[in-house]
Fold Precorrin-2 C(20)-methyltransferase.
Amino acid sequence: MTQPGRLIGLGVGPGDPELITVKALRLLRESPVVAYFVAKGKKGNAFGIIEAHLQGAQSLMPLVYPVTTEVLPAPLSYEQVISDFYDQAAEDVAQHLQAGRDVAVICEGDPFFYGSYMYLHDRLAHQFEAEVVPGVCSMLGGASVLGVPLVYRNQSLSVLSGVLPHDELKRRLADADAAVIMKLGRNFHKVREVLTELGLADRALYVERATMSNQKVVPFNEVDPMSSPYFSLIIVPGERWQG
């Protein structure tokens, strides 16, 4: 019987190609199949990070999202459409694994930190050997670009989604020593309102596409909420500790 292949989740970092780890690079080069999630008509940030390291004999497996951020007409449900997509993607990857081929699924940032790989892991890790290689996540890339420590001494860090309702986001931010707010996009105006109401706007720092070649650091009060991209985040660092 053919020995099943391994499912390998590779974190390739937040954008700077030099932030991929030595282990991730080795496993990438050794994998006969390289899979990557991508929007229709796009190459994708994760693929751009690793493209120069690919070998000619490797098979590429783009997993193309049927939807991204667009609003679907009734009775279509985004949650159901995307769940069905992950089911099909898992079946497609499983065919390679059952045939004995390792599949490296590349993931921008870290596979288990808002990474699409995790949805394949949930569906396949109980059937096949799985290995996950951590990567530098976007919030750490953002902190390095902004040149700001996230937390001091005994402070705690909260990672929040901008998708949260206004009152829930406000409650969680009010209780945080320091925070990173992700998934901005259409939620930026709401997030700005919450930060202003809490008196945190002066501490808030904004960055787009941290560590990428087209990264952009903008003063928080000058950000255009209509053009805030998906690949952006806000950092509210902890109060400096005089150690």
Residues 78-98 form the longest helix (21 residues). The chain is about 30% helix and 20% strand.
